[in-house]
Amino acid sequence: MVMAMRVHETGGSDALTWEKVDVGEPGPGEARIRHTAIGLNFIDIYFRSGLYPAPNGTPFIPGNEGAGIVETVGANVSHIQPGDRVAYVGPLGAYAQERIVPADRLVAIPDGIDDKTAAAMMLKGMTAQYLLRQTYDVGPETTLLFHAAAGGVGLIAGQWAGHLGATVIGTAGSPEKVELAKANGYQHVINYRTENFVERIAEITGGRGCDVVYDSVGQDTYPGSLDCLKPRGLWVSFGQSSGPIKDFNLALLGPKGSLYATRPTLFTYIASRADLEKTAGDLFDVVKSGIVKIDVNQEYRLADAKQAHDDLEGRKTTGTTVLIP
């Protein structure tokens, strides 16, 4: 038996229950890993609250990303072995000292990247990768707006997009977060609590607007995000930290400039083993080379995951956060 955080009924952070669970042995195509660090993400709150339904109902163990040591492997597993350091973004179940993971979701952590960094960057870093390199191919001619620039994905995306030569504009909610974003690749950062971001985008771009807007905020930034785009620009809605967008009007895209809109998810982009290895490999390369620095700004004990959720929901965190078993 090991300790884990489980959710028996969805709701607030009090729904997280610290209790013993039986892990069992890995079956064919599976591996049992001992976590050394677990990533904290807003999607964990979506599942805990019930906004996203857990695939197998309740009770469930939340958490989608982690890093650790392979303890044992099942039959038909050859690309990893006991003792390997591995990381993953995979099915729910990361908030546990040990767990079973489908082996094809595990990637080896390269030398030069520690376990905390790996756990903190897999979901956020691969999200930044697909947003900047696949959903829209960012380059020197690109002007982009990234909401929540001081968040975990935002800080990675700012550095990466800056390296790609783009004009990188962000929004943040405090003077401290504005400065943090500026230190991580953003040439312009708008404090959305004191400035109208639509008006500021018009000023910054000379009225031209952005090629692409990356929006993980949702309710609070819609439909303003659409007004920040050039004609035929792309609105990428990949989260809803302020609440879901209600009554999205597809017809609105026409008069606002024949805009494009997409609602991508990381799990679609890494569904195949080949796509997972390519996306993770690209991320590892930019981190190892120093192009992107991953700052783990908060650490909590796994047993204190309730406080971690409260702080994340209260926008008291910056960058990446890990839970330590």
Automatic annotation (TrEMBL):
Organism lineage: Bacteria, Pseudomonadati, Pseudomonadota, Alphaproteobacteria, Hyphomicrobiales
Any one GO MF annotation of this record: mRNA 3'-UTR AU-rich region binding
Domain (Enoyl reductase (ER)): residue spans on this chain: 11-323
SMART domains xrefs: PKS_ER (SM00829)
InterPro entries: ADH-like_C, ADH-like_N, ER, GroES-like_sf, NAD(P)-bd_dom_sf, QOR-like
CDD domains reported for this sequence: QOR2
Presence of the UniProt keyword NADP in the record: yes
Domain of life: Bacteria
Cellular-component GO terms for this entry: cytosol
Protein name: NADPH2:quinone reductase
The entry's keywords: NADP, Oxidoreductase
